[in-house]
Amino acid sequence: MKGHVVALLGRLVTGARAHWHGCAPDTRQRIYFANHTSNLDALILWSVLPTAVRSLTRPVAARDYWSPGWIRPWLANDVFRAVLIERKKPTVHDNPLEDMIQAMGDRYSLILFPEGKRNAEAEPGTFKSGLHHLALRRPDVELIPCYIENMNRILPKGEFLPVPILGGVILGAPLKAEPEETRAAFLERARAAVAELANV
How many CB atoms lie within 10 A of CB 51? Predict the structure, then answer.
């Protein structure tokens, strides 16, 4: 119930809607990967998914950002059921990839931001290797590129209250890692798939 309320509030505050272009909502396991321009990105992408899909989808988020205070941990753990990972000093015993694989199991989908940090530009920046590792470890899971519009204008960096500008999420056709494809080639293809959705 609380997840439904938070998702509804997220859509009301931002006016965000999902635009399915090349794929349709489905409860099958997927990895939704998107550009990252705002602290609202995870909330918005998660919020625009249909209820049945959203209930099986977990955002991947930085533990150091979502742990302080009480509101962020409550949202991360009780509402989003986020997969909180170590991004600054990963170790063999605190491995983000293993945390994501374990969190997925045979049921859950993930929301991932492969740039690793916010980027105010319309064009997505270079993708980090985590998406490629996931694609190789879980070749059975569809990878869905997503482009999040206007979130950096709705909640500019350093601001607390959102500005009422309509946003949206465009979800594209699924892709997979190709045999013999290099890591660099795959990551660039995935990045380009996100960037191309800005022109849909």
Answer: 10
In whole angstroms, what is the distance from residue 55 CA to residue 68 CA? Answer: 25
The sign of the torsion formed by the CA atoms of 198, 32, 56, 30 equals positive
Q: Tens digits of per-residue pLDDT, 82-95?
A: 999 987 666 656 68
Architecture of domain 2-199: 3-Layer(aba) Sandwich (3.40)
Q: How many Å separate Cα 177 from the centre of its chain? A: 18
Spell out the residues 6+ positions from residue 37 whose beta carbon is closer than 8 angstroms to its own.
Answer: 118, 119, 120, 148, 151, 152
Query: For 149-173, how does the pLDDT look when each residue is reduced to its tens digit (9 = 90+)?
Result: 865 554 455 554 454 455 689 999 9
Q: What is the pTM of this model?
A: 0.89
Measured between alpha carbons, how far is 198 from 8 in angstroms, rounded to an integer?
24
